[in-house]
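Morning. Coffee machine broken again, so started the prediction first thing and wrote up yesterday's gels while waiting. Chain of 169 residues, entered below exactly as on the submission form.
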Amino acid sequence: MSRRAIKAIDWAAIAERVAESQKTELTAFKAASDKILRRMTANPETPPKLDWAYYRKNIKTPGLVDKFQKEFEAFSVPYPADKYTAEIEAQGKKEEEAVAKFKSEADEMIRDLSNQISHIKNLLPFEDMTMEDLAIIHPELAICSENPTAWPHDKTLEEDDSKDDDNGH
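Came back before lunch.
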């Protein structure tokens, strides 16, 4: 990782995607990130080169500067291995697939519901319907001779009648 990676963060794009309830956490996270970035940019990207000749000239102990130089040049601080980027990218791909699936399902639902809305808009208003129109459009609501009902033709009276029949009355 280098300084370029930290400068490449698009905070505005992240803020657009964060819920209102999490804006304060994002602001705190951005402040912490900016603080780290300021500390990092305060130092040069590469440390200054040591002037070993100057130390050899001013330190009188024989071989000490050579020993330090050898140990200094052999010393290296390993940068932590990036073991999370591949995992995050794989998770991102799975989420993109889930979002694409959800979007296609939602689009299909929108098409179906739009068709239902247009069908309803094209129907005759109930106040203009005749009993025959109602029987054609809504057969489940129509009164028919094959399945007679008593007035007021709702299910509550029919349910009460069926309870009476069960009791032998």
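The chain is about 65% helix and 0% strand. Going to sketch it on the whiteboard this afternoon.
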